[in-house]
Q: What sequence folds into this?
């Protein structure tokens, strides 16, 4: 039996990274004495080791073996886990990731780090070495005076058990670890030698285990074969010592009845190629984890329910299609109504299909949030601050592409919160706050957007420091009065940092501008709220998906533009009494209490247009970055969903335009980038002002 | 099968020796087109398609020679008027005005741009050694866009470098 193993390697890698993630998050949640967590960490390490061995990633196997040994000692209670151990295990997880990544890319890795960690692991194990021997010795003693319950286990495997890669011998040795095991092989199912198939298993067993393990512990051993055997686990009454040893003896005797047959069985089992064992185990596991998805892989795992709904919709679409084509075969004008309803149905189907397809790309944001517990853990050690991380709304879904691109900006914001936001413990106590700071990550949906909030209960942003720094850098005039949000926006200027000392975490003044740019390139925006002494909150507002948006089509001259519906506050016809001209050539429109500046699109984009006068013209009031503006348009056309196409692919980024789309008639229409347009208009106004100032100076 | 064996009477050398089947050549093929009175050529393998002129969607605040973008089977393709870009001839749009759509792979990224020219004229075969260096005496076409000159009879065809043509628009507009 030979299997091309290489086809399983991607699955192995994917699963290993998942395992590593699990190990990491479990390690961070580790409370002493919680066996379930330790077990899950151990299992993850164990399957990585097994897989790596199968695929010949020997360095991974060797390294993981050490980790596993350490975990095993912890699991068996032979070692009390200390903070140092947790740290070492976290570093080990990093090393394993490094090794597996190297194996994936067939690249070199940081050998020093691995060697160093290997030494550390060996040292740690070494210290414990003697203790573990004592432990073994003790367990020997235990055997002499068997304590605990007597379990009687009937294990009748199905004939094909070994074909699925399971080895009863391994199960028995695992059971033997739990206590004293005696077993009896039953050969009553054995067929005649001529009918015997060498790849099938005909033997069943009766086992007796003397152990203080619980039934669950025993069942766990059979976890992998549960579905492929008849398993009965019965606890015999706790008998006095003498009778227990009697039972034992009798079992021992019976076990020795057919030594040859159990030997032959052993041979049979060991003949199974190890590879088959591992790979089949893997496939099984992959199926179990279907809903999980790796962070930045090129593939998505999709829940069966999502696929099913797609298939259902597809079926409806086919029905509609056949109905329409039948209608088209002998069409008469009297059937127009029927055609219309058919087309309506088609529209409905298409919309639903589109929604379902988009859902496939949606992933819970926990994939982006996963890395933060570790990050905060590491940073809090580095900075010596005590920090709790609270994560909420991790099931909020958003588009995979958005998720991949929002990761780094979020990391930056969290780093900032740790480094600049949270004060040192001493300072917190002096200010009457709890000793440990709290950073909260929250995600939720709002309209068609997802909001991610990163808040800390630290010292808040020092308004004065930001302002004086900005004046020093010449970003603001010293006389200017700025609102809080304007001051906080200065943080996103390139090269801006108010940190008194530059740490290696943050404070070099690079980054926040990049954060803002990244978020904007995703069509999102970022807002800052801060209260001195209470804390700061960064609010990131992102579109759910990058592929499709709801748009309002507008006409300017001969061109059609699309305004994202989400930015639109309202559309109105300008009335003369609300139009005000201020400071020469700026037009303001009074919208209830607000004065909204009017941006004529034709002016901004240098186009011919029908309407140049604001009076009676159509204004689309849009909002971005908390600023409302009125866009002057010639006509309001339809509202529709548009598929966003990038201009960057074949051309370049265009100011004021976020992309293009193809309309129903095949023509191209530009999608307006509202924040970009506001920025453009402000820049132009600034330039004009400068010109005036220059002219004034010349006069 | 050796194609020369099929036509053994015909001499192996010579540019236009095989009337009608002049594609038998070891050299490359070039699409020639007109800008005003002048002949230009691009590598034919880069030509995605030749379209008739249609009014594209305007890109706001783009330079004059960027006429806009069109939809080519779902791809947004910018349209650049080479006559305006190189300042050759008159930028008029008539029935024979065509757009040559070129696709070039640059650093693993494929870029597709349409170029407006006055007319497409011919397919030209040229061996590498027939391509002469272009003398540099100024002119409207930037030297980096020119790969060389090819003599065709008494006329000369300027061979344009498709990669630099594609990158023309990468630079930020002043």
A:
């Amino acid at each position: 039996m030979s299997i091309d193993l290489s086809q399983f390697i991607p699955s192995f890698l994917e699963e290993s990274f998942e395992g590593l993630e699990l190990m990491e998050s479990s390690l961070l949640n580790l409370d002493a004495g919680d066996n379930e967590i330790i077990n899950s960490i151990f299992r993850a390490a164990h399957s990585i080791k097994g897989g790596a061995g199968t695929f010949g990633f020997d360095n991974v196997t060797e390294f993981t073996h050490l980790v596993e040994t350490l975990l095993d000692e912890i699991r068996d209670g032979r070692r009390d886990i200390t903070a140092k151990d947790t740290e070492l295990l976290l570093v080990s997880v990093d090393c394993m990731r490094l090794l597996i990544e190297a194996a994936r890319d067939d690249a070199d890795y940081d050998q020093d780090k691995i060697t160093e960690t290997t030494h550390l692991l060996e040292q740690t194990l070494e210290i414990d070495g003697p203790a573990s021997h004592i432990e073994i010795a003790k367990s020997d003693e235990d055997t002499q005076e068997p304590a605990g319950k007597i379990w009687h286990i009937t294990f009748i495997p199905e004939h094909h058990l070994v074909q699925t890669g399971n080895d009863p011998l391994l199960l028995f040795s695992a059971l033997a670890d739990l206590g004293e095991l005696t077993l009896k092989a039953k050969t009553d199912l054995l067929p005649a030698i001529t009918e015997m198939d060498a790849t099938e298993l005909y033997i069943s067993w009766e086992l007796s285990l003397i152990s203080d393990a619980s039934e669950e512990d025993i069942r766990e051993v059979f976890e992998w074969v549960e579905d492929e055997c008849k398993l009965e686990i019965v606890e015999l009454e706790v008998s006095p010592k003498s009778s227990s040893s009697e039972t034992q003896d009798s079992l021992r005797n019976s076990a020795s009845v057919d030594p040859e047959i159990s030997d032959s069985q052993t041979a049979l089992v060991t003949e199974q190629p190890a590879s088959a064992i591992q790979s089949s185990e893997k496939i099984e596991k992959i199926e179990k984890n279907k809903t999980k998805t790796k962070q930045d892989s090129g593939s998505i795992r999709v829940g069966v329910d999502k696929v099913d709904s797609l298939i259902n919709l597809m079926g409806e679409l086919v029905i509609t299609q056949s109905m329409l084509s039948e209608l088209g075969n002998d069409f008469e004008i009297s059937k127009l109504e029927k055609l219309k309803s058919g087309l309506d149905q088609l529209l409905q189907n298409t919309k639903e299909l589109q929604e379902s397809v988009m859902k496939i790309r949606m992933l819970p944001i926990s994939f982006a949030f996963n890395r933060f517990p570790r990050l905060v853990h590491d940073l809090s050690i580095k900075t010596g601050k005590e920090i709790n991380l609270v994560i909420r709304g991790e099931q909020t879904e958003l588009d995979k592409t958005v998720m991949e691109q929002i990761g780094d900006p979020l990391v930056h914001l969290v780093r900032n919160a740790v480094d600049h936001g949270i004060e040192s413990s001493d300072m917190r106590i002096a200010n009457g706050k709890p000793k440990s700071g709290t950073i909260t990550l929250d995600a939720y949906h709002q309209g068609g957007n997802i909001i991610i909030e990163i808040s800390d209960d630290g010292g808040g942003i020092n308004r004065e420091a930001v302002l004086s720094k900005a004046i020093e850098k010449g970003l603001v005039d010293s006389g200017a009065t700025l609102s809080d949000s304007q001051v906080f926006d200065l943080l996103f200027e390139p090269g801006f940092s108010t940190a008194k000392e530059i740490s290696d975490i943050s404070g070099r003044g690079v980054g926040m501008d990049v954060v803002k740019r990244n978020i904007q390139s995703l069509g999102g925006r970022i807002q800052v709220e801060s209260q001195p002494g209470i804390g700061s909150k960064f609010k990131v507002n992102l579109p759910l998906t990058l592929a499709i948006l709801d748009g309002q089509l507008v006409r300017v001259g001969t061109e059609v533009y699309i305004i994202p519906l989400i930015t639109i506050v309202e559309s109105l016809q300008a009335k003369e009494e609300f139009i005000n001209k201020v400071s020469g050539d700026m037009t303001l429109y009074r919208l209830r209490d607000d004065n909204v500046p009017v941006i004529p699109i034709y002016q901004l984009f240098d186009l011919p247009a029908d309407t140049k006068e604001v009076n009676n013209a159509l204004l689309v009031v849009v909002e971005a970055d908390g600023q409302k503006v009125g866009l002057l348009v010639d006509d309001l056309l339809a509202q529709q969903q548009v598929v966003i196409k990038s201009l960057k692919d074949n051309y370049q980024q265009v100011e004021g335009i976020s992309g293009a789309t193809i309309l129903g008639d095949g023509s191209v229409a530009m999608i307006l980038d509202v924040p970009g347009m506001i920025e453009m208009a402000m820049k132009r106004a600034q330039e004009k002002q400068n010109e005036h100032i220059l002219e004034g100076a010349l006069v | 099968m050796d194609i020369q064996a099929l036509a053994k009477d015909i001499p192996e050398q010579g540019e236009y020796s095989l009337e009608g089947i002049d594609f038998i050549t070891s050299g490359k093929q070039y699409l020639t087109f007109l800008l005003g009175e002048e002949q230009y050529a691009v590598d034919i393998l880069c030509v995605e398609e030749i379209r008739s002129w249609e009014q594209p969607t305007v890109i706001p605040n783009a330079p004059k020679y960027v006429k806009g973008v069109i939809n080519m089977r779902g791809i947004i393709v910018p349209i650049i008027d080479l006559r305006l870009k190189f300042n050759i001839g008159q930028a008029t749009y008539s029935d024979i005005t065509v757009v040559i759509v070129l696709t070039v792979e640059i650093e693993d990224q494929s870029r597709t741009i349409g170029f407006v020219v006055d007319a497409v004229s011919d397919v030209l075969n040229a061996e590498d050694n027939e391509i002469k260096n272009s003398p540099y005496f100024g002119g409207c076409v930037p030297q980096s866009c020119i790969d060389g000159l090819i003599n065709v009879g008494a006329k000369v065809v300027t061979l344009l470098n498709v990669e630099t043509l594609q990158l023309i628009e990468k630079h930020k507009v002043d």
Summary: Chain B touches chain A at residues 56-62, 66, 68-71, 74-78, 111-113, 169-170, 172 (CB under 8 Å). Chain B has a mean pLDDT of 79. Chain B is about 10% helix and 45% strand. The two ends of chain B are 56 Å apart (CA to CA).
